[in-house]
Each structure stands twice: as C-alpha cells, then as structure tokens.
Amino acid sequence: MKCPYGTVKEQDTTADIAVQIKAKSLSNLFSAAGWAYTNLVADISKIKPDVNQTVCCQSDDLTMLMVDWLAELIFIFETKQLLFSKFDTIVKNSCLQTHMAGQKSGLKPDEYRMDIKAVTWHGLEITNKQGLYQTRIIFDV
Amino acid sequence: MKLERTGQYQWVLPVNAMPDMRVPGVVFANESIIQTIRKDGSLRQLANATTLPGVQSAAIAMPDIHFGYGLPIGGIVATDVKDGVITPGGVGYDINCGVRLLVTPLDAHMISDETEKLVNKLSCAIPCGVGSSGKIHLKTSVIRRVLNSGAEWAVQRGYGTADDLIFCEASGAMEGADANAVSDRALERGKNQVGTLGSGNHFIEIQKVYRIFDKEKAGIYGLKKDAITIMIHSGSRGLGHQVCTDFIRTMAQAINKYGIRVPDRQLACVPLNSSEGQMYLGAMKAAANFAWANRQCLTHWVREELADYFGRLCPLEQVKLVYDVAHNIVKIETHTVDKKAKTVAVHRKGATRAFGPNQPELPEKYKKTGQPVLIPGDMGTASYVLAGTDKAMQQSFGSACHGAGRQLSRKAALREARNRSIQQELKSKGVYVWAEGKRTINEEMPDAYKNIHDIVSIIHETGLAEYVAELQPIGVIKG
Questions:
Q1: pLDDT in the model for residue B351
Q2: What pLDDT is attached to residue B398?
Q3: What does R_g of chain B's alpha carbons equal in angstroms?
Q4: pLDDT per residue as tens digits for the range B61-71
Q5: What pLDDT, on a 0 to 100 scale, did the predictor assign at position B130?
Q6: What residue ranges of chain B have pLDDT lower than 50?
Q7: Which of A126, B83, B127, B325 is the 20 to 30 A CA-CA neighbour of B305?
Q8: What is the mean pLDDT of residues A90-112?
Q9: Which helix (H) or strand (E) is B204 found in, with range?
Q10: What is the DSSP letter of B289?
Q11: Chain A residue with minimal CA distance to B407?
Q12: Where are the alpha helices (DSSP H) in chain A?
C-alpha cells in the first residue's frame, strides 16, 4: 500500500529494520513516519480508522521529536494494542500534535509482520533537500 | 577503515583510524568475518565507542560482531568508574537479554519420538510472539519488588529453587537496583510481561548434548553425552526497552552540561558518577533483575511441562540450571588495566561475560573451571558450552561472544526463504520448529546467521573461552 503522506522505503540493516522517508512538509514527514511504523508491525490496509486518539509531544529538537513521537506509538501499541492508519499532524517549533485514527489490532498472531520494540537515534537526522524533507529511521526489532 | 592484523584471529583499529579516538579498537575475527564487517558499518560503530570519555585499553569486538546502533552487536567497552561515562547505547534496548541452560535427566533416545508433541505442549504453556502478555499480571507495587529482587522474587513465589539463584550471573539480582528510577511507562509495559518469551530471535530450544570436548568440566557443569538440555533466550521485554528509551533521551539532554561530544547520539552518555549516570545504573540494574525474574518464570513452566509429560522420568527438581548469562548489560567490575587493578564499568552489548577460574563472583562449584559460557547458534546447527579463562580476563574484560551473529538482514533472509519451506528443511535435519508465524521462522533461518562452528572456534583458538560441549537442536519454540 502506498503511503499517502510521502514516500516510505524499507531498507536492510543487519539485525533490525530501517525506513527511508521523504515528504513535502515536516508535518507530512512525521505522519509518514507514523504510517511506516504501523505498516512495519502489520499490513496497514487492514487497520480500520475506528478509534480516534490525539498525541502531543514536545522535544528539544526535531530528531528528539521524531524519537518521542514513534516511541509514543510503540508504547500505545504495547500497552493498549492500538494501531493507527490515518494521521493528521502539525509540527511547529519541535512540538507535535497528531490526530490519529485506527483500531484495537485484534490481529491473529501470524498476521503481525514484526515486533518493533524501540526507535533508535542511530544516524537519525532530518534534512531538507530541495524542498523535500527526508529522514532515515532504524527501529529495534 | 584502516585495520591492522596483529594475530591469526586479532585485528586492531588504530587510534588514528578516525578523529577523536582515545584508544584502539580490537576485533577477534577471521579473514572472512573481517571482509563482511568492512562493508556493514560495524567498524565505524566500534570506532565511535572508542571516543567515549574514560574508555579503557580498547573497545573490543567479538567474532559475532555486526551492525547495530551505538556500540555494535558483539561489542565490549569499559570505562573508568571515577572519570568515565556510562551509556545506554553500550548496553542496548533489551537490557539483560540473556541465555540460560537447563539440563534434564532425560536421554536423547527417550525423547526422539516425542519432540514434536513436546514442542507443541511447551508452545501452549509459554506466552510468546508479538505483543504477548503472560500468565502473571502484576500491580505496580509488586513489579517494584521484582525490579529489586530479580530471580529471587520468582523463587519466593514458587517458580524455582534456591539453587537456581546460585547458578545465575549476579545470583539473578544486581545489587543497587533502583525501582524508583524506572518510569511509570516502563512499569506499564512490563506489568503483564513477566514469564513471556517475546519475539524475534528469542527462543526455547530442546537440545541434546552431541559432543563433549572436556569431560571433567562437562561433568562439573552436569553435562554428559546425549543428555537433553533446554536453552532459554529472552530478556527484559518492553520494560527494558522503555528504560533504555527513557535514558538515552535523558542523556541526550544532559550531555552538553558535561561538555561531552559523541559522534552518534545513540551513544549519548554522562559521567558515571553524575546524578543521571547513577540513576541510569540503578534503572538498568532493575531492568536486568526483571529479565532474570522473567527467565526464572519461563524455567518453571518448562519444568512443569516436562514433569507433566514425562512423569517420574523428569521430575521438576531434576531439571537443573547449569547457568544463566546476560548478553546486554553494564557491570562494575575490577580488571587489570596497564598492569594495575582498576574498577571499570564494562558495557557488554551482545557479548557474554566469560570469567575464568577463581573469580569471586562465581559459584563455588565453578570456581575451579571458570564459568560456563553459553553460546547459542542458529536453530538448525548447534550451540556451545565453553568455560571462561584467565586469558579473557586479560584480553577482553572477561568477555566472549554471545552467539553466531547475523549475516543476513531480515529482509534478505525473507528473500532467501522465498519458495522454500524452512520448517520442512529443518524437520528433515531432525529439528522441529514451532513459531506463531512463518515469517519469524524465515527471518531466523539458519542461513541468516554466521557459521557458529567458525565463531566458536575463534573464541577457543584465541583462548577467550575453551570448548566444553556441543549441543544440537532437536526442537525449537520461536517467539
């Protein structure tokens, strides 16, 4: 399934998983990162937008904001089994507010793609090249 | 990166290989491993670790080294406790991910027709897989007791015996654990996860002792040819991951205050003696204790299922713990640095403690032999039991490798497994594998790992640990 917020490409790393993300705005970059996370855990096309939730994060810089945002999604999944497929994000001054829609996963064990346990800081940076925001995120699996 | 060969299995990354290196890097490997790691970025990660303030002697990599984040997997870095730093990136997310080995009174011939049924029985009893929660649901006050007491908490609840504690590294509980340094989020993630295997490369494996190299040491470890052993690989689950997540953030914020610069924010660090450093150490110890309690509960359920299945042939009390070792941890230890005894914080990330004979922390039974060094391989080949040596104390801060080490990424493994049935291939080799999903079996296929025989032979040949026994898998439960 194509990400509606930007481009998401899964990349090989030896033991874990990386995603390369590009988007036309910072807000879409963060939405695309949330989308990428869900699509790593399960087939995002199977996640219905039945439950709404809002997440707010405030961080020291954009890199930390990306880690905080994805760590929040990991925490929500692990403690509430909620996965999200729709993201509406506003990023301003290293603050993020995202309205999300998703569902309690209810997937069978073999329908999960992988267990994302943490988001790492390794090599993580957010750049803007010719108007396109980009990042590469390595998740601990 | 510039790498100099200094021995048959030893390579040095000189201090001028990269700016800001304070000590060299040392890699124990063969030519083939060196060729692989030259391409995967792990040497750069090793070099990054040599820039940490207070780093001692050398940052060390074991032959199972591969690309990770922060310190590479298979990495060891020791820092001075007085003026050095502590870094969660030198430990990793799954704090005290580790392995324990149980030996049963069963012989291989008693189990040969029963493996499939036994694996299925164990898979029903052991919670595992993505987002799995366990049979034990803990209130916050009780989790805090787990964090302070580790495996002892489980034993007090009837999940094991006092002897089990003797045969755990650190007796299954690190002193100085600070449950109050663990965030509410971490507690929330951990409250239903004691006694769960987890997912990914975690496993419970039924094995037979295939070969004995050292009869005397094997005898002391309780191992004899054809005996059935059970190996358990799990860690601190979501709780440990959250502790690491929390403290990398804390240190990323505090690092400037201490005037420290690191080439990778994953290696964010603070002085060990700072308030943030002490708080991380206390929380890390608490998470490590959680992992020991977790493996202790898993042990109990394995024992229960074996006793239920085999009756008087395998009573609970005759399934003995050989040893339990941590793979991802930082410990305060005394080692010889520049010919003087020095107290250092040894960060092991994907590396096993491998203490030689007469070390005070070893149980009396293993004082003469050195500690059992448990090295799991892939699920189709072999695992090894080695014995710690004095040489490891001199050359690797008392450490050895932790496994075979991945050579294929998960995606590459999935590509490799296309149009193959890994489960069937393993079955034809006499290994019955059960997992919640086929994907896990494919990601963890034997081809995804380096050859365990090669890795362990390097450890043996360099003298970091010595062969005791080879174990062959016959049944595997993957998380």
A1: 98
A2: 98
A3: 21
A4: 999 999 999 99
A5: 77
A6: none
A7: B325
A8: 92
A9: strand B203-212
A10: H
A11: A14
A12: 26-41, 62-80
Best B93, B410, B438, B439 residue to mutate vs chain A (most A CBs within 10 Å):
B410
Q: What is the pLDDT of residue B9?
A: 98
| B227: its two tokens | 């005996």
Q: Do B189 and A79 touch (CB under 8 A)?
A: yes
- For B:67-86, CB contacts with A below 8 A are 67-70, 73
Decide if B172 contacts B152 (C-beta within 8 A). Answer: yes
Q: B411, exposed or middle or buried, with CB in 10 Å at 0-12, 13-18, 19+?
A: middle
Domain count for chain B, please give it.
1
| DSSP codes, B383-435 | EEEEEEBHHHHHHSSSEEE-SS-B-S-HHHHHHHHTT--HHHHHHHTT-EEEE
Q: Which H or E run includes B212?
A: strand B203-212
Q: Mutate one of B48, B97, B265, B434 to test the A interface: name it (highest A CB count within 10 A).
A: B265
For residue B220, the surrounding DSSP H or E stretch is helix B215-221
Neighbours of B419 (CB within 10 A): 4
Q: According to the model, what pLDDT value does residue B255 have?
A: 97
pLDDT value for B167 = 98
pLDDT, tens only, B304-323: 999 999 999 999 999 999 99
Distance from CA of B70 to the nearest CA of A (A): 6
Element (H, E) at B300: helix B275-310
What is the predicted pLDDT for the residue at B225? Answer: 98
CATH superfamily for A7-140 is Archease domain (3.55.10.10)
Which residue type, as a one-letter code, is found at position B200? Answer: G
The residue range of the domain holding B147 is: 4-478
pLDDT at B338: 92
Residue whose C-alpha is closest to residue B142's, from B132, B157, B127: B157
DSSP 3-state percent helix, strand, coil across chain A (nearest 5)? 30, 40, 30
Q: Where are the beta strands (DSSP E) in B14-90?
A: 25-28, 59-66, 73-80, 85-86
The number of beta carbons lying within 10 Å of the beta carbon of residue B332 is 16
What pLDDT was estimated at residue A111? Answer: 85
Cβ–Cβ under 8 Å, residues B234 and B248: no
CATH code: domain of residue B453: 3.90.1860.10
**Tokens matching residue B365:** 């039974």
Structure token digits, residue B116: 């499939």
The number of CA neighbours under 13 Å toward the Cβ of B40 is: 25
CA distances from B399 to B56, B77, B224 (A): 15, 10, 25
Amino acid A15: pLDDT: 78
- Using pLDDT thresholds of 50, 70 and 90, give the confidence band for residue A13: confident
Q: Please state the domain extents for chain A.
A: 7-140
Q: Which residue in this structure is represented by tokens 């003298």?
A: B463
Q: Which of B94, B129, B125 is nearest to B439 (CA)?
A: B129
How far is residue B454's CA from residue B286's CA, in Å, rounded to a whole number?
35
User: What's the average model confidence in pLDDT over A28-56?
Assistant: 97
The pLDDT score that the predictor gives to residue B436 is 81
What is the separation of C-alpha A112 from the centre of its chain, rounded to a whole number of angstroms?
A: 16
